[in-house]
Structure formats: C-alpha cells, structure tokens
Write a structure and sequence with these properties.
Elements lengths: L5 H10 L18 E2 L9 E6 L28 E2 L9 E5 L5 E8 L4 E7 L5 E2 L8
Parallel strand pairs: 3-7
Antiparallel strand pairs: 1-6, 2-4, 4-5, 5-6
C-alpha cells in the first residue's frame, strides 16, 4: 500500500462530517494519542493508507516536532508527518461514519501498545519533505 501524501491526508480529515447519531467509534475519545482500548472492536475500522513510504530497513527518526511547546499526547500537537510518531502511522477510518484516525504501534522494553489519535486536518504539517523522506 503506497503512502498517502500530506494533501491526501488533509483531504481525508476534511471530508469527515460527524454523524447526527452516536457512532460506535465515538467510544474512542482520542484528540491526542491514547492507547487503543482492548475492549474496542477494531473491526469497526478500515485501513486507508500509510503516512510514509519508507524502506522497511530504514529506521525513521524518533525526534518529535513541537514548535509551539506542545507535548506528544496534547490534542493540539501538530501532526508532523516527518517526525515521530507520524512517520510510522497508518490512516484508518470508521467503517460506519468514516471518522479518520491515526494508528501506530508503540514498542517498549516489555510491552506493545496500539496507539490511536483522531486525525485533525488543521494540525497536519508536512515535515516529511524537509527531512528528506
């Protein structure tokens, strides 16, 4: 699956209109990065694309991008496509309402954690080009 461009990622986010009725995906309250709850039915999400087109042997940077002093888990943190964790994300959508979400796997010393964040197109910054990715 080829990588989505920054323009495509923003378009996916901007095309979303919240439904009038409550959708099952609304159980995910994730304006900033959160752990995907084990109780959430992940089959309600479909993969749309990736945020990068990197070589599988090329380790992307762990450097984050917070020019306004935000933090990794902040709701207003930029979605900086060339920086961690956005340089290793996938774009997903709810199969019912098309709500766009970002996902990646956090690997720690003794754990694996599926992380999820709602995709806000206004926060997308294409730092991938400036990083040569």
């Amino acid at each position: 699956m080829p990588a989505l461009t920054a323009v495509q990622i923003v378009a996916i986010a901007l095309q979303y209109t919240p439904p009038d009725a409550v959708c099952a995906c609304s159980a995910l309250q994730c304006p900033g990065w959160e752990s995907l709850p084990a109780t959430f039915d992940a089959s309600l999400l479909r993969l749309v694309g990736r945020t990068n087109n990197r070589d599988p042997y090329d380790e992307p940077t762990l450097e984050e991008h917070h020019p306004q002093g935000t933090r990794y888990d902040a709701a207003d943190a930029p979605v900086a496509l060339g920086h961690f964790p956005y340089n290793r994300c996938e774009v997903w959508q709810c199969v019912r309402c098309a709500r766009p979400l970002l996902r990646y796997t956090e690997y720690g010393g003794y754990y694996v954690d599926q992380r999820i964040r709602e995709l806000n197109g206004a926060l997308v910054v294409d730092t991938a080009a400036s990083r040569g990715r």
